[in-house]
């Protein structure tokens, strides 16, 4: 029917006013109620837009010219921002980024969780929202016979060849990527070529302790034998005293996964160390470790506040990873039980507990949804449960097990407002109420949203 046909066609040039923004950071404008999504458009702006894709209920456009500019629009400081897939929000003020993230949490709670009228606080942001990442992993390729490093272009595997630096990555990391590339280039080490699966150097990874400034370099190669590798190591260690560890990781597969199975210490220590709050962490080449420790501290302080521990509580930390939250909680609880599905992460968690002299935290390998019923059968009665699941949220069986265990409080740390809201609905229907939610900006300049919710049992029976 003509009435339902989209009001625009492909390649139309239109004027559009943006009213809203999607969780991917695209501007949303409407023509007769038909929404068009336009990357880089900001609410309040009017722009000339080319229609590039028309679907039944919505379409996509390309921003050609801004006719009225938002006061929140800023010039992206990165020279490759519009090519790179890494950041999505550099064209908007940091203030607007924080508001956008708060609104996303609010909207998801309302639309998906039917939860309204509770405090969703202002996003906790960073004083300096740049150079916050402690880790960079960057592909190496060859161009005109020289080694180059750069991230992939959006939706492609072509490397951005004029990327000088990444300004959300720590300065030392940036500098060392450049140094390793330059030395390897001089020594004639070849770059990996994806299409022929030939060449040696696949990726350079650099990770630095936020507090300790200790740095680890991981050189990821297609095969183990690399000519001139010893000289590469020599030159790096002579020039860069902050480097405490150099590891070779061998990845012989045709794959997008960066790290291979085999790691080999080339020089220095197997671990570097870092601190979040009072807790020290030993980090190996393959360890998962939060990429923004400053904001991680903010997030965990909030989780700890929401857990309201007095020292008498038994606490479960589900999806505990390397035990970062568990060890934070253990300082204030009687006993903490952590569960996590990746065995290496649990080894790290145990080692980190030992490193900090924490003996009231116990860690288990397994799927949270399977371990919970088992714990319940064993008679474990937690006072507080903390969860920090991956983007897909918690399994329903896990949520039900939690409801049956009846902890007084649940603290839900989430990296996806949609699944958070879905899961909170289930908890609310099971007798819990959400008291408040705090968004924390762990990844400035990107669309990632992290939030922590405080949830309480309505009445203890
Ligand atoms: N709390 C940790 C890590 C959170 S990331 C930290 O702050 O560092 C989510 C974790 O959940 C990952 O480590 C992932 O391996 C783990 N995971 C995913 N599915 C799981 C499941 N079904 N049961 C237990 N852990 C799971």
Automatic annotation (TrEMBL):
Enzyme Commission number(s) of this protein: 2.1.1.190
Keywords: Methyltransferase, S-adenosyl-L-methionine, Transferase
A biological process term (GO) from this entry: methylation
Keyword S-adenosyl-L-methionine assigned: yes
Statement: the UniProt record of this protein carries the keyword Zinc-finger: no
Residues where S-adenosyl-L-methionine binds: 290, 319, 340, 388
Name used for this protein in its record: 23S rRNA (Uracil(1939)-C(5))-methyltransferase RlmD
Taxonomic source organism: Gracilibacillus xinjiangensis
Gene: rlmD
């Amino acid at each position: 029917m003509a009435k339902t046909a989209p009001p625009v066609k492909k390649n139309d040039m239109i004027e559009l006013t943006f009213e809203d923004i999607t969780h991917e950071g695209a501007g949303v404008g409407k023509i007769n109620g038909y929404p068009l999504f336009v990357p880089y458009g900001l609410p309040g702006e009017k722009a000339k837009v080319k229609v590039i894709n028309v679907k039944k209920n919505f379409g996509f456009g390309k921003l050609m010219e801004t006719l009225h500019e938002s006061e929140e629009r800023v010039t992206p400081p990165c020279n490759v921002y519009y090519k790179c897939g890494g950041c999505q929000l550099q064209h908007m003020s940091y203030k607007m980024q924080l508001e956008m993230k708060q609104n996303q949490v609010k909207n998801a709670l309302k639309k998906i969780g039917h939860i309204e009228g509770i405090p969703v606080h202002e996003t906790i942001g960073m004083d300096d929202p740049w150079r916050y990442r402690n880790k960079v992993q960057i592909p190496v390729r060859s161009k005109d016979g020289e080694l180059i490093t750069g991230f992939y272009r959006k939706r492609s595997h072509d490397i951005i060849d004029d990327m000088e630096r990444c300004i959300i990555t720590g300065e030392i990391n940036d500098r060392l990527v450049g140094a390793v590339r330059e030395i390897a280039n001089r020594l004639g080490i070849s770059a990996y070529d994806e299409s022929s699966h030939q060449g040696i150097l696949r990726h350079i990874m650099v990770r630095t302790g936020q507090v300790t400034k200790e740095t680890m370099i991981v050189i990821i190669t297609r095969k183990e034998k690399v000519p001139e590798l010893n000289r590469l190591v020599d030159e790096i260690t002579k020039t860069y005293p902050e480097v405490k560890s150099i590891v070779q990781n061998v990845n012989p597969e045709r794959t997008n996964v960066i790290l291979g199975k085999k790691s080999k210490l080339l020089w220095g220590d197997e671990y570097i160390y870092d601190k979040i709050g009072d807790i020290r962490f030993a980090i190996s080449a393959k360890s998962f470790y939060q990429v923004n420790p400053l904001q991680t501290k903010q997030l965990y302080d909030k989780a700890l506040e929401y857990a309201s521990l007095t020292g008498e509580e038994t606490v479960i930390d589900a999806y505990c990873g390397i035990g970062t939250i568990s060890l934070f909680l253990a300082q204030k609880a009687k006993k903490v039980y952590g569960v996590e599905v990746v065995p290496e992460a649990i080894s790290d968690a145990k080692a980190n507990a030992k490193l900090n002299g924490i003996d009231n935290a116990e860690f288990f390998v397994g799927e949270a949804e399977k371990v919970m019923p088992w714990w319940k059968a064993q008679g474990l009665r937690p006072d507080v449960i903390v969860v920090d699941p991956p983007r897909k949220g918690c399994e329903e069986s896990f949520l039900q097990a939690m409801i049956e265990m009846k902890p007084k409080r649940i603290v839900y740390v989430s990296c996806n407002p949609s699944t958070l809201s879905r899961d909170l609905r289930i908890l609310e229907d099971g007798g819990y109420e959400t008291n408040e939610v705090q968004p924390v900006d762990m990844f400035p300049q990107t669309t990632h949203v992290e939030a922590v919710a405080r949830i309480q049992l309505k009445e203890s029976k």
